[in-house]
Amino acid sequence: MSPMTHTRASVAETRLGRALAWATRNGPSALAEAAVNIALPYLLFTLIKPSVGSVGGLMAGAAPPLGWTLFQLTRHRRIDVLSLLVLGGIAASLIAFFGGGGARFLQLREQLVIALIGVVFLTSAAIGKPLISQLARARTRRRSTEEARALEALQSSPIVRRAMMVMTLAWGVGLVAEAALTVVLVFTLTIPQYLLASPILGYGSIGGLTAWTFWYARRRIVAARAAISASAR
């Protein structure tokens, strides 16, 4: 085995080990979240719809996800930009639920929350204050003072500033696109089918954006540090 092949094999083994460690550490909570956000809403809608109708079934099915989100916020006891966005989404969803209208109208107003958050990302980029930068600061402050200081030291780098803008635009476009695609599902699927497909689409889009964000941010931070080191010589 050549040295290059051996290195690639070692990298692959390391990544596989990290993936397995993540699955072991987060698997139970991921399954619980899937049960609360996918299985329970579908089950409650199916059981309750015959007696209270589609709107009542949708409202009942929305209770577990809302309760889960509030539980997670209370459990971690943190209020930052991301938490405020989540709470804003919950408030908007509750307003939609109790605002009246038919089942399809209710489903459409739920997607308005996602679209509005996407617009917030795009607006923050348009005014030159990318929201991803604020979210990154909040995340590093929760983790450690050292990480927060390291991020602040990189904020003056043009590479990092551009990366924050690119990531903010990606999240804004991604969330608006998700909302638009979900609206298509509202008009093409039955409500039970929608209750299964919509959260899968949501997890897929958020998961994809999150994975890309970490990958892209890591590469840009490495590039920024290399540029700073080169300029200091």
Low-pLDDT runs of 5+ residues are none
Oligomer: single chain
Helix content: over 70%
Biggest sheet overview: none
**What do the pLDDT scores average to?**
77
What spatial form do the alpha-carbon principal axes imply? elongated
> Could you spell the SSE succession in H and E letters?
HHHHHHH
Strand content is under 5%
Distance between the termini: 38 Å
What's the β-strand tally?
0
Query: How many H/I helices?
Result: 7
- By secondary-structure content and strand pairing, the structural class works out as mainly alpha
Rg from Cα: 21 Å
Molecular structure report:
This protein is mainly alpha-helical. The chain has a domain of 147 residues. 91% of the residues lie in helices and 0% in strands. The protein contains 7 helices and no strands. The longest helix has 74 residues. The two termini are 38 Å apart. The mean pLDDT is 77.
Summarize the structure.
The chain has 233 residues and is mainly α. It is built from seven helices and no strands. It is elongated, with a radius of gyration of 21 Å.
